[in-house]
UniProtKB/TrEMBL annotation:
GO terms for molecular function: flavin adenine dinucleotide binding; sarcosine oxidase activity. It comes from Acidiphilium cryptum (strain JF-5). Residues 5-349 form the FAD dependent oxidoreductase domain. Transmembrane segments: none annotated. The keyword Disulfide bond does not apply. This is FAD dependent oxidoreductase. InterPro entries: FAD-dep_OxRdtase, FAD/NAD-bd_sf, MTOX. Its cofactor is FAD. PANTHER family: PEROXISOMAL SARCOSINE OXIDASE. Keywords: FAD, Flavoprotein, Oxidoreductase.
Amino acid sequence: MSAPRVLVVGGGIAGLSAAWGLSRRGFAVELFEQGPLPNPRASSHDEHRIIRHAYGELEGYAHMMPAAFRLWEALWAETGARHYDDLPVIYFMRGETPWYEPTRRSLDRLGIAHADIPLAEIPARFPMIEPAGLTRVMRTAGGGILYPVRILTDLVKLLGRRGVALHANTRVEAIDAEAGTLRTAAGTVRGDAVIVAAGAWAARLVPSLADAAVPSRQAVMFLAPPPELEAAWAAAPVMIDLGEESGTYTLPPRAGTRLKIGDHRFTRAGDPDGDRAGTDEDVARLLDAASRAWRGFDRYTVLERKACFYTVTEDERFILRREGARAWLCSACSGHGFKLGVLMGDAVAGAVAGERDAASLTRWAAGLDIPD
Ligand SMILES: Cc1cc2nc3c(=O)[nH]c(=O)nc-3n(C[C@H](O)[C@H](O)[C@H](O)COP(=O)(O)OP(=O)(O)OC[C@H]3O[C@@H](n4cnc5c(N)ncnc54)[C@H](O)[C@@H]3O)c2cc1C
């Protein structure tokens, strides 16, 4: 008897990881991607992404991180390349934040080292950071940088070697969740199950998602530091500013990547098929925040302004759920889904295999399972 066939829509981290998980479980897999593989328009496609255990009020996700790290290690073992730099992640707080207490609690429970850095040490240790207004600075272990373009590229090659049928430049026009089929311009493809991991485009295939998750256009800037700060940046950790006005995340220039600053305030607007060059309007808030978070921001050279997309739910939780008799939705959304994408893809593959029921998958993926 031939292996059950699963059709995966989307070649971002969630879809590729689902295909990897299905292939490991013995399924025949076909993956459909509307663009090239990997696709520069995917949310997952960038020079770097932050991975961390610190998760604030979304504590359930902190408790998923050990399993996510184990899967990343399994991936490196199979591809032969470890696209991860273990670096401290430093949080710069400017005023009281509800993020601190649950983070401290879950890091303690997980045995992840953390410590506050005396504010008096900040100017010497982090000369790029604006010290005015800081109320607490916390250093955490158990995190660092993932290198997504390299990860996606290796995953695509790995799936090819594993015999997954990869259909690049093949847009899925519709799915039939009851029949387990999908339609492309070439015709209908039959499977035993369909997984939709279509990122910011997912609601076009699963219209009910539109009520729960909206595409959000987000700005990032790649920068060259002034010469006098090059050495400091080369040794810099990942840095996250949690200030109301200065809220930003910063990835240092490591392993051939560029220095990047991004904005974690959601726009909840835009069309993922639109132009991706960062406009003046896209970067206006980011420029303002960057000039509050960093010292002497006007001395940096802007190399690129870029807009990218993800979907955002009201409470920033992921949506993994069963659709009809034969389809599954895997939406690792809300701007924190790369580090966990490998785990979400694997979990939906496990659900297709009957390893867990749909209700428990949905609850767990929403970060609602917090161990006693
Ligand atoms: C600027 C930015 C910074 C971020 N920073 C972090 C971070 O530091 N840490 C972190 O963990 N996460 C971060 N994220 C979030 C993370 O990147 C996303 O949550 C994650 O990549 C989502 O992966 P995905 O596979 O669900 O979606 P995507 O990567 O978007 O993949 C979906 C794929 O489906 C394809 N597709 C869509 N519709 C169809 C169709 N009809 N037919 C065929 N193919 C289709 C798309 O072309 C796309 O390639 C960030 C995101 C952005 C944009």
